[in-house]
User: Which sequence fits this backbone?
């Protein structure tokens, strides 16, 4: 996934805001990147543009080498279902469906209604540690568990990119670390990159790369080395103990 | 008492819970596709709104059912005499608008008709209004039908007591038992007066009812003329029976050319003319259609409002679907399935109520009819109404910005 010279203007007239100003960014398979910045810096707008939900005012987004420029809303939707998985701050699970059906929905919208779709959904839930909760409804799950269901929904279609918007913001420290561990595991697959929009410093140790954004511009980028990440994870594990 | 009130108040919720549980069992046992499960569960999620939707559909469809059932029944009753006359052709005074529109035909027309090649018989029928007076002095208007009681005239049918031969007895008349109360008749042998002539009930039929609610009284031709004060050389209609092998159109043309100031009609044409007059000429049909239209509008508005409201409440879910790559068609299908599920449940309840209404009015002066064609039509109307109602919800979803999923 690649963003080239992305600019995005929001609003009209006096209320017009330049949310993004010529952003260049790429996400490679096998990496977990954090997009960090203060509120109003353009993180979520950039995520929406990268996720093909919002069209840029200028610039282009390329998914697996194909530009999204000029695509219709239906073509963009098809692109999202084939290549992108989303994780939202508020989970956005369907309260009337149980966990496995919530996950299966991501395959159902692709037209996959086979028994295999059900099996894959169960596998995705197992991958995030919820094999025993497949029949539970969102109201019966904790915040951390709901976010895991959302992650399972994002990965079940085996997309090339996972875009997560503040996935730990609504969670306590324990669940926040757990969710980041799951995302870091997902990013170990060289076919899949994970981009996390966050301002939660607890997520930093899990990142391969940290991208800083301010006032709609990328202002910095740093890489985490393996030793630092291992130390952070050790710290996270010890914090889970009573 | 309080428990009873509480139970009564809980009844709609309990019904909704029962339907919901039933649907869940259906899902589990039949592996219902996820899109249908999602739609149905969205629909049942807010029980109060679901109940309101169903009540709206039921109210609307029962209203339409009653109005259209009355329309169908009215249309049938308007032509009941024509349908039971078994005539090949009717000779009626020119400009006759309906069966109950009496104008005299000269008896000489009958002989002229009989002289036409291809006519085997031209049976006279007289009709007209009169008064039925019981010994106590109470009087009520009646509609007299007179015809020869032998041969192919217009005789009472569904005879349940007595026989048509007994109408030859002086003063004998036939009445329908559905009018016993109106005519103050207790059964066979009852005495009354028609136009100062003593009459006695000698034949009783069942189900010969008039849409005007004025009782039909059958008598022989001459007696009927006496009752309505018609001269002996006058008739109202002539029922033409064709000779074997005669061509109906040719005979009709000859009759029309030979007879003056008459219309020569087939039974279907006379029936259509009567229906047209009563249903549209008098405004009765327009009133029934207006009631049905009102029902449709009320139903559509209620279903549209509830579907729109439901869609609005689930907008983040629809935005999520869109964000994860759902096509627009998938989301519209969810909404339309919700409308269809509402239609099926609402129609089922409305149809059950309709059957009760049909049974309750079966013996009334104007029974409500519910033929299979009307039932199928009402179901299609319910589906169309609910799908039309889904349009506002679909428009709402079409205007939705999927980026709203990031807003909370």
Assistant:
């Amino acid at each position: 996934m690649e963003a080239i010279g992305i600019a995005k203007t929001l609003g009209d007239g006096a209320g017009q805001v330049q949310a993004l100003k010529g952003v260049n960014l790429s996400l490679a398979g096998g990496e977990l990147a954090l997009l960090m910045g203060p509120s109003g810096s353009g993180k979520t707008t950039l995520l929406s543009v990268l996720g093909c939900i919002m069209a840029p005012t200028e610039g282009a987004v390329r998914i697996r080498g194909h530009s999204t420029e000029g695509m219709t809303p239906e073509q963009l939707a098809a692109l999202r279902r084939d290549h992108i998985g989303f994780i939202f701050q508020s989970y956005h699970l369907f309260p009337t469906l149980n966990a496995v059906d919530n996950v299966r929905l991501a395959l159902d919208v692709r037209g996959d209604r086979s028994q295999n779709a059900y099996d894959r959904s169960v596998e995705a839930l197992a991958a995030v540690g919820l094999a025993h909760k497949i029949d539970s409804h969102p109201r019966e799950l904790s915040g951390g568990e709901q976010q895991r269901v959302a992650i399972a929904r994002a990965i079940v279609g085996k997309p090339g990119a996972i875009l997560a918007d503040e996935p730990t913001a609504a969670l306590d420290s324990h669940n926040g670390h757990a969710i980041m561990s799951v995302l870091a595991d997902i990013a170990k697959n060289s076919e899949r990159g994970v981009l996390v929009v966050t301002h939660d410093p607890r997520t930093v140790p899990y990142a391969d790369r940290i991208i800083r954004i301010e006032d709609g511009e990328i202002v910095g980028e740093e890489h985490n080395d393996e030793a630092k990440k291992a130390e952070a994870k050790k710290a996270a594990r010890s914090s889970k103990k009573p | 008492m309080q428990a009873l009130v509480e139970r009564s108040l809980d009844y709609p919720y309990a019904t909704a819970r029962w339907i919901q549980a039933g649907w869940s069992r259906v899902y589990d046992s039949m592996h219902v596709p996820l899109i249908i499960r999602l739609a149905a569960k969205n629909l049942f999620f807010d029980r109060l709104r679901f109940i309101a939707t169903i009540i709206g559909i039921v109210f609307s469809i029962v209203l339409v059912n009653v109005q259209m059932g009355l329309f169908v029944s009215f249309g049938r009753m308007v032509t009941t005499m024509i349908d039971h006359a078994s005539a090949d052709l009717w000779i009626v005074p020119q400009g006759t608008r309906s069966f109950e529109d009496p104008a005299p035909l000269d008896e000489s027309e009958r002989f002229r008709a009989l002289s036409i090649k291809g006519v085997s018989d031209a049976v006279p029928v007289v009709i007209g209004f009169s008064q039925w007076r019981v010994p106590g002095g109470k009087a009520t208007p009646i509609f007299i039908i007179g015809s020869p009681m032998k041969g192919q005239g217009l005789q009472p049918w569904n005879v349940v007591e007595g026989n048509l031969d007994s109408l030859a007895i002086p003063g004998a008349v036939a009445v329908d038992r559905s009018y016993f109360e109106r005519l103050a008749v207790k059964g066979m042998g009852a005495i009354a007066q028609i136009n100062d002539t003593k009459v006695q009930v000698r034949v009783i039929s069942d189900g010969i009812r008039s849409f005007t609610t004025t009782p039909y009284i059958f008598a022989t031709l001459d007696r009927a003329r006496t009752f309505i004060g018609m001269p002996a050389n006058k008739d109202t209609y002539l029922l033409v029976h064709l000779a074997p092998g005669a061509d109906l159109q040719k005979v009709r043309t000859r009759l029309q050319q030979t007879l003056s100031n008459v219309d020569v009609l087939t039974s279907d044409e006379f029936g259509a003319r009567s229906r047209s007059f009563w249903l549209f000429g008098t405004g009765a049909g327009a009133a029934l259609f207006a009631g049905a239209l009102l029902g449709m509008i009320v139903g559509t508005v209620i279903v549209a409002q509830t579907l729109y409201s439901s869609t609005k409440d689930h907008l983040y879910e629809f935005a999520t679907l869109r964000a994860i790559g759902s096509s627009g068609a998938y989301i519209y299908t969810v909404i339309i399935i919700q409308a269809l599920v509402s239609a099926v449940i609402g129609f089922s309840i409305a149809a059950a109520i309709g059957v009760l209404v049909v049974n309750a009015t079966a013996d009334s002066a104007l029974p409500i009819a519910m033929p299979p064609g009307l039932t199928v039509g009402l179901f299609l109307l319910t589906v169309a109404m609910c799908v039309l109602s889904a349009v506002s919800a679909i428009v709402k979803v079409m205007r939705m910005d999927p980026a709203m999923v990031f807003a909370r």
Notes: The CA atoms of residues 30 and 101 of chain A lie 28 Å apart. Chain A has one domain: 2-240.
